[in-house]
Amino acid sequence: FELPSDSFKYLGWCDVEELGVRGNQLRCPRVREGPSEEELFFRKEEHTLKKRKQVTDTEKWEKRLQENWENCAELNLSFQDLGDLYQVENFKRILRRLIRVEKLWLVDNSLTDLSAIRLPRCRELNVNKNHFTSFKQLPKIPQIQHLSLAENNITTLSGISDFRHTPLESLILKRNPCEFQERYRQLVFSSLPNLKMLDGIPKLPEDCSPPDVRFFYRMCTIL
After folding, report:
1. DSSP code of residue 201
2. Residue 123 pLDDT > 60, yes or no?
3. What is the rounded CA–CA span in Å between residue 108 and residue 126?
4. Distance CA 61, CA 153 (A)
5. Is 147 buried (19+), middle (13-18) or exposed (0-12) by CB count in 10 A?
6. With b meaning 16 or more CB within 10 Å and e meaning fewer, what string describes 32-68?
7. Mean pLDDT for the chain overall
8. What is the 3-class SS of 166-178, one letter each residue?
9. First to last CA, the chain
10. Cβ-contact 84, 43 below 8 angstroms
11. For residue 183, is pLDDT > 50?
12. Residue 103 and residue 81 in contact, taking contact as beta carbons nearer than 8 Å
């Protein structure tokens, strides 16, 4: 049975009539796009389609001003359920507009590569529970201070030195394969001398010892 709200379930907040809420007023918005018209017909949900009307350039501009992602300083875009490519592209379109965001949460979005995204003012980024396999796949974050990458699939510490020239103070890599690397903490702190905390544990005296050069010539195979 259809619920009274069914006709609104794929409706973007900007499309709701007589609504003046701006993007920077939202804290946990759902920004993924709904299914295409063809997909809705396939699902037999064409009743959810809005009546088509000619959209003027003025209306397009008003919608862009209403989104105003450029003014967001703190935003939570977690749990977006990005199931289709067009939803991922729309998601990245919004990320590219976050030029002033300082705190950003992107938890559990099945993200794999944001290397084309630049977040020039971001100081705190949480991308836990995604599918990153390398530090090279992260967005450009020159002002980052707190970075959380727990529960991804980062296998090696290759590329971590790219953060050497950032003000990064704390880093979380819990439940990544690289956490099981021999002399893991020493390797991280030697690559990031300004780092103060790793995986919630402050820098310890034993973390400052240089990594064993012989480490790079050994390999352990677990069968």
Report:
1. E
2. yes
3. 10
4. 40
5. buried
6. bbbbeeeebeeeebeebeeeeeeeeeeeeeeeeeebe
7. 85
8. CCCCEEECCCCHH
9. 53
10. no
11. yes
12. no
Distance CA 146, CA 195 (A): 10
**Identity (one letter) of the amino acid at 62?**
E
d(CA 220, CA 223): 10
In the block, residue with structure tokens 């956490």: 179
Note the pLDDT of residue 214: 46
Surface-to-core class of residue 19, CB atoms within 10 Å of its CB (0-12 exposed, 13-18 middle, 19+ buried): exposed
Rounded to an integer, what distance in angstroms lies between the CA atom of residue 213 and that of residue 15?
60
Q: Residue ranges per domain, the chain?
A: 9-203
Residue 179 φ then ψ, to 5°: -65, -20
Which amino acid is present at 168? L
Q: Hey, is 76 helix, strand or coil? A: strand
Q: Which of 3.60.15.10, 3.80.10.10, 3.40.50.300, 3.40.50.2300 is the CATH number of 9-203?
A: 3.80.10.10
Tens-place pLDDT, residues 127-146: 999 999 999 999 999 999 99
Q: What is the largest CA-CA distance in the chain?
A: 68
Angle at 206 between CA 204 and CA 211, to 5 degrees: 125
Q: Which residue has the tokens 């590219």?
A: 96
Residue 184 · residue 213 · CB < 8 Å: no
